[in-house]
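FAQ

Q: What does a record look like?
A: Structure on top, sequence underneath. For example:
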């Protein structure tokens, strides 16, 4: 006996792997994004599965405080609320599977620790002694603060790489399983080899190749690196024209790579 279909049954469309935003960002449904109000994706950014974006690690700012910006022409200063952006990612940047963006942090002395501890050391006869002691213990002489992390345009971050850099410039290529330490600065057209571990605070200047554990500058990417169809750099270490059959290469524009993600 043939089965009859239920006319009242609703057909559900198959959900794709990626959610595409109005600005063309393609975000995997299996990515792990924390603190979305503090993350800026400029457009055409790909976030693959298991990517972790720690937007929740945002600098604690007092809403009553303002930052002053001087105007070079008028000489006047204007006030505004402090920035609450944890991570910003430029256009056509590709975040490969399992990589992590972790804003850099710094420990500094807590200016309120001494005065706060002094005020709580005075016992209040109307409160139990245990309550006063608890207030004193909550004051720490040091404080951990996170800072804005900026990722440039047309930058490729490889699978399972961990990025705690303050800045990653444009047209950079970071290999799989690389670790970029806290507060590092990568300028434009930097290639980080697979498995490299950059120590905290390291600065990589324009067009260098970084590798090793601990990482060091091995040389330059060479002329022609980042040009599709060139087959690799000439006179440098920026070899390995990954993805040329798809119209993109290391250090070059990633438009075709982004478009290929469905």
């Amino acid at each position: 006996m043939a089965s009859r279909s239920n006319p009242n049954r609703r057909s559900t469309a198959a959900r794709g792997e990626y959610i595409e935003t109005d600005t063309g960002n393609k975000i995997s449904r299996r990515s792990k994004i924390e603190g979305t109000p503090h993350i800026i994706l400029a457009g055409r950014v790909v976030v693959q599965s298991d990517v972790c974006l720690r937007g929740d690690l945002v600098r604690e700012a007092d809403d009553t405080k303002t930052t002053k910006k001087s105007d070079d022409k008028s000489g006047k200063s204007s006030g505004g609320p402090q920035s609450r952006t944890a991570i910003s990612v430029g256009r056509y940047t590709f975040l490969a599977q399992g990589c992590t963006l972790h804003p850099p942090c710094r420990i500094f002395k807590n200016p309120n620790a001494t005065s706060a501890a002094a005020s709580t050391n005075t016992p209040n006869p109307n409160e139990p002694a245990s309550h006063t002691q608890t207030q004193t213990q909550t004051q720490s002489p040091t404080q951990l603060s996170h800072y804005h992390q900026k990722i440039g345009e047309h930058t490729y971050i490889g699978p399972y790489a961990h990025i705690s850099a303050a800045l990653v410039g444009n047209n950079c290529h970071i290999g799989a399983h690389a670790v970029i330490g806290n507060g590092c600065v990568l300028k434009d057209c930097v290639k980080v080899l697979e498995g490299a571990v950059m120590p905290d605070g390291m600065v990589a200047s324009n067009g260098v190749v970084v590798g090793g554990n601990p990482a060091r500058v091995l040389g330059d990417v060479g002329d022609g690196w980042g040009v599709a169809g060139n087959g690799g750099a000439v006179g440098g270490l920026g070899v390995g024209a990954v993805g040329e059959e798809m119209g993109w290469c290391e250090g070059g524009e990633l438009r075709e790579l982004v478009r290929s993600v469905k």
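Q: Is there anything notable about this one?
A: The CA atoms of residues 165 and 184 lie 4 Å apart.
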